[in-house]
């Protein structure tokens, strides 16, 4: 199950983009029937979470809270991967710096967050290479599908 909640100021954001990114990331790992929750929020809320859980009193783009990490992870339901939190405000700022759409930025952040839920990290150079290679592979697949969908909409039968 993929649960997406949007409490951000951008209430009209297309959450199908997030759903597709979660599904593509799970599919790339041959994983089905897992529960992932995604919260789209603003800088105020993500700053609170970042401060409370990471000790950083500032906004960030994405946070991942894995249910498979920690001391009691064996006792938890292994069908629940965890939660991803994305700040649409930060994502929007980043789009101006990276020169791509908000939709593509949120797609990237979603894939990145779900990869963290699956145990990927980028603390070491070797881990970063593995994570970002996987992230880029999934994003390239998603962007190719998105491009095909746009082409199909343009061709009217």
What percentage of residues falls in helices of 4 or more residues? 40-55%
Low-confidence stretches: none
Distance between the termini: 34 Å
* SS field, number of helical segments: 5
Q: How does the major sheet shape up? A: 4 strands, mixed
Gross morphology is globular
Strand/helix succession? EHEHEEHHH
Strand content: 15-25%
**E-strand count:** 4
Structural class: alpha/beta
Average predicted confidence as pLDDT: 87
Radius of gyration: 16 Å
Q: Name the strands of the widest sheet in spatial order.
A: 1-2-4-3
Give the structure's gist in a few sentences.
The protein is an alpha/beta fold and 157 residues long. 52% of the residues lie in helices and 16% in strands. Strands 1-2-4-3 form a 4-stranded mixed sheet, with helices on both faces.
Structural description of this entry:
This protein is α/β, with parallel strands linked by helices and 157 residues long. The chain contains 5 helices and 4 strands. It has helices spanning 16-28, 43-54, 88-98, 102-117, 125-154, and strands spanning 2-6, 35-41, 62-66, 80-87. The protein has a 4-stranded mixed sheet, sandwiched between helices. α1 crosses α5.
Features:
52% helix, 4-stranded mixed β-sheet, globular
Helix and strand topology:
Elements: E1 2-6, H1 16-28, E2 35-41, H2 43-54, E3 62-66, E4 80-87, H3 88-98, H4 102-117, H5 125-154
Helix pairs in contact: 1-4, 1-5, 3-4, 4-5
């Amino acid at each position: 199950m993929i649960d997406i909640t949007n409490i951000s100021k951008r209430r009209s954001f297309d959450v199908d983009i997030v759903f597709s990114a979660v599904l593509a990331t799970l599919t790339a790992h041959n994983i089905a029937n897992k529960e992932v929750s995604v919260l789209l929020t603003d800088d105020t809320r993500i700053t609170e979470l970042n401060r409370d859980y990471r000790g950083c009193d500032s906004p960030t783009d994405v946070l991942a809270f894995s249910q498979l990490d920690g001391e009691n992870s064996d006792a938890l339901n292994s069908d629940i991967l965890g939660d991803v939190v994305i700040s649409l405000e930060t994502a929007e700022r980043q789009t101006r710096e990276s020169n791509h759409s908000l939709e593509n930025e949120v797609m990237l952040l979603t894939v990145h967050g779900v990869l963290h839920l699956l145990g990927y990290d980028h603390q070491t150079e070797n881990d970063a290479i593995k994570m970002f290679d996987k992230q880029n592979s999934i994003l390239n697949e998603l962007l190719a599908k998105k491009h095909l969908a746009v082409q199909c909409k343009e061709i009217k039968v």
